[in-house]
Amino acid sequence: MTTTRHAEIAGAGLGGLAVAIALAQKGWSVRVHERADDLRMFGAGIWLWENGLRSLDALGVEQAATARAKRIETLVARDHEGRPLLRRTFGAEDRLVLPPRADLYDALIARVAELEVEVVLRSTAVGATPHGELEIEGGKVLRADLVVAADGVFSRLREALLLTRRVDYLDEGYTRLLIPRRPEDPDTEITEYWSGSRRLLYDPCTDEVDYVCLCCPVDDEAGRRVPVDKETWLASFPQLGGILERIDDAGRWDRAMRVTPRAWSRGSAAIVGDAAHGQPPNLGQGANLTFQNALALAEYLDREPDVPAALVDWERRERPLTDHIQRWTDLYGRVASAWPDRFAHRRSQVLETVTRIPWVDRQMNKAARHRPVGAR
User: Does Oxidoreductase count among this protein's keywords (predicted)?
Assistant: First the structure.
């Protein structure tokens, strides 16, 4: 007689729900703990690359998550003179789509319900042990074959497990929001506009809305202001008044963070998502790596009945790619934002040259072109 294995998961964000689905599909009983009163996602878009789409397909949510999403054909970065610095095209086996985050989250929630995963709201996890114990605020201790910490960059559980090596506050931040779409807006091209140390990212999202991301150094007080100071951004991007005028009082500014753990697991406890590899969104791979790592986690656990051994194998095989993308997304941010304004022309020259090198293209897109373990 086979005994059903049980997992307790802390955090019902994208990572926690993805792990819950992946495990439930392998026959695990799963309970997810969420400290909030409800399941809600903030209003922004999300980049889903080929690796993320393949992972979501294996989790049974790709179609629902991307039903309204724009299919991207090209991605272009332009300097202050409108010169293209970087161009990336997409094909049938190398896709990028851009749904609202809420559409993706709703698809994950629906799949969790379909698989009869238990989600407990107003349940705050405050500790975990390598022995498969999850401590809930108030003193209750729950035991499981596997405990998963999916509680974000500032994970309490990661630190309880002594898995934190570094949490770095980076020198830039982002305001992400949705704006009403107009008929004349580009339909299939993402454009990142650069002006000095500021960047404005325009993304077609759905037939109703576009996704906009404003990036600036943390010392740029006017640039990080919410509601967005449209006047100061218009001074940086005078050609983008048609976009900036549609920004309302919504949006939020988040400082870029980087998480470097000592390991992804200890005993029968693992960390996933931002708790394991929080990173700035420059390459748009944070969530995609979360989905592929969640899918792979369930796959390795299915192959190896010994949970600690499976977790070690999972990290050994999957972490190198995640670490690689963390390094390259950091490098992209430094190249984009760390040049003084007087060297903007030189930055353009360097980038035009470097981004044409095939090796650089392979490094930047290594995750996007990766076939996730467990994908169909």
Answer: yes
Residue type, 354: V
Question: Does the global pTM surpass 0.70?
Answer: yes
Contact 284, 192 (CB under 8 A): no
Fold of domain 6-169+256-364? FAD/NAD(P)-binding domain (3.50.50)
Sheet holding 48-49, edge to edge: 48-49, 96-98, 70-71
Sorted by where each begins, the domain ranges of the chain are 6-169+256-364
pLDDT in tens, the chain (376 residues): 357 999 999 999 999 999 999 999 999 999 999 999 998 887 799 999 999 999 999 999 999 999 999 999 999 988 878 888 888 999 888 999 999 999 999 999 999 999 999 999 999 999 999 999 999 999 999 999 999 999 999 999 999 999 999 999 999 999 999 999 999 999 999 999 999 889 999 999 999 999 999 999 999 999 999 999 999 999 999 999 999 999 998 888 999 999 999 999 999 999 999 999 999 999 999 999 999 999 999 999 999 999 999 999 999 999 999 999 999 999 888 777 666 666 666 667 777 777 778 998 899 999 999 999 999 8
